[in-house]
């Protein structure tokens, strides 16, 4: 008599555990993005409570982490920061500089008027 092993429960449990772990990793990645944290295997491992080998052995998760890491590296490069700063702040910087020029021109005019007044007093005293 041959006995058939019933492994359905074990397979179902393993599948459920795999799905839960993948969801835990996904939530950790979303949280890291929301908190504007670096995305890499170390930070995801810490946030999700899984091993690095697990992340490396899951092709979809590995690809996602590598993609996010690459995007962050591009965004964080000084060249891109400077470009974004210039694009985003150009108008406000121009406005600040124009206001500063107006202030300096006003101060310059006041000083010139003061010099004329003092020269007039000096001329009268002779």
Automatic annotation (TrEMBL):
Lineage: Bacteria, Bacillati, Bacillota, Bacilli, Bacillales
Keyword vocabulary terms for this entry: Coiled coil
Protein name, as recorded: DUF6262 family protein
Top-rank taxon, per record: Bacteria
Any coiled-coil regions, as ranges: 11-42, 94-121
Matching InterPro entries: TnpC-like
Species annotation: Terrihalobacillus insolitus
Chain residue ranges for the region called Disordered: 68-89
Pfam families noted in UniProt: DUF6262
């Amino acid at each position: 008599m041959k006995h058939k092993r019933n492994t359905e429960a074990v397979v179902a449990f393993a599948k459920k555990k795999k799905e839960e772990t993948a969801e835990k990793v996904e939530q950790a990645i979303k949280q890291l993005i929301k908190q504007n944290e670096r995305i890499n295997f170390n930070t995801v491992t810490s946030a999700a409570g899984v091993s690095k080998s697990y992340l490396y052995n899951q092709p979809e998760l590995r690809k996602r982490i590598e993609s996010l890491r690459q995007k962050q590296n591009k965004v964080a490069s000084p060249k891109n920061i400077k470009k974004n700063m210039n694009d985003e702040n150009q108008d406000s910087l121009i406005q600040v500089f124009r206001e500063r020029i107006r202030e300096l021109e006003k101060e310059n005019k006041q000083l010139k008027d003061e010099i004329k007044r003092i020269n007039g007093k000096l001329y009268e005293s002779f």
